[in-house]
Amino acid sequence: MPCFPTSTVPLFDTHCHCGLVLNAHPPPQPGCYELIASVELRHWHTLPPLLEGKSQRLGALGLHPWFAQQWEPSCAARLEELLQQPEIVAVGEVGLDPGVGAALEVQERVLRAQIHLALKMKKPLILHVTKGYPRMLEILREEQAQQVGGVVHAFSAGANVGNDFIRQGFHLGVGPLLLQPHARKLPTALCSLPLDRLVLETDAQGGMDGYTTPTQRTKVLSAIAQRLAEIHAETPARICQQLWHNSRKLFLLPEPIPQREELS
User: Fold this and answer.
1) Helices 43-51 & 75-82 angle (0-180, nearest 10)
2) Using one digit for the tens of pLDDT, what is the confidence trace for 196-252?
3) Is residue 256, in this structure, part of any structural domain at all?
4) 3-state SS track over the chain
5) What CA–CA distance (Å, rounded) separates 31 from 188?
6) Is residue 136 assigned to a domain?
7) Closest among 156, 92, 169 to 125, alpha carbons compared
8) Is residue 168 part of a domain?
């Protein structure tokens, strides 16, 4: 299990893909923790080497709905074996994306299979939901996914939908969309959503403009935290402390929350 520092509260990027396609062994973000989420079958064996010896880097293994057609009968056993590694702290990125990739019935079947594994391994889910929020919530209820919870990646819906997921035991991933001038619905929703159910994310991948270096990705996380502080009329220090606590609780990580005095 990773060991966390006690002198500062680091930022936690709960969703990125760095190293899975380009820059095979990217350095961790300075002063940050990051979770690398797989999306394709080929990542199931390229991800673990990225985590070896990196206490600030964790992983999630799963099959993205865009690639649900890659699922085959042997996948469940393979994924279960890989999920036993302590650095793999979640099942994901999994979910539904109607109209993209595999047929919806295939996506649903693969999603349910991965929810079953998450329940068996007692690890949270990282959900991809771009459309069809009601159907996703229905599946989560049917499969009793609230037993492990997880995070809704790239949350962009209204407060009512956000609270529906929170009632199912899920956190909401807040990403770079919050920094876009045209994003008006999300700040409004976040005003009335509880801070203790939010986490930070960049969704960064190798080669993305403005996200290429670790320092750039850290600046994005800091900017999102600053924007959340403005929305909730809180100090950045308070926001960072709460988000660190949320991430640690979500992924069942040890150690008490340290203080980060340099943020005010």
Assistant:
1) 0
2) 999 999 999 877 888 878 888 899 999 999 999 999 999 999 999 999 999 999 998
3) no
4) CCCCCCCCCCEEEEEECCCCCCCCCCCCCCCEEEEEECCCCCHHHHHHHHHCCCCCEEEEECCCHHHHHHCCCCHHHHHHHHCCCCCEEEEEEEEECCCCCCCHHHHHHHHHHHHHHHHHHCCCEEEEECCCHHHHHHHHHHCCHHHCCEEEECCCCCHHHHHHHHHCCEEEEECHHHHCCCCCHHHHHHHCCCHHHEEECCCCCCCCCCCCCHHHHHHHHHHHHHHHHHHCCCCHHHHHHHHHHHHHHHCCCCCCCCCCCCCC
5) 30
6) yes
7) 92
8) yes
Q: Is residue 101 part of a domain?
A: yes
Question: What digits encode the pLDDT tens for the residues 144-168?
Answer: 999 999 999 999 999 999 999 999 9
For the ranges 7-16, 17-26, 75-84, which has the lowest average pLDDT? 17-26
CATH code where residue 92 lies: 3.20.20.140
Residue 227 is part of which domain span?
A: 11-250
For the segment 131-144, the average pLDDT, to the nearest whole number, is 96
Residue type, 69: Q
Lowest mean pLDDT among 17-26, 58-67, 96-105, 173-182: 17-26
Tell me the two tokens of residue 152: 């809704």
The pLDDT of residue 22 is 63
DSSP 211: -
The reported pTM is 0.91
Q: Tokens at residue 200, please?
A: 């930070």
Bridge-based pairing of strands 11-16 and 170-174 is: unpaired
- Indicate the burial class of 238 (C-beta count within 10 angstroms; 0-12, 13-18, 19 or more): middle
Which pLDDT belongs to residue 263?
35
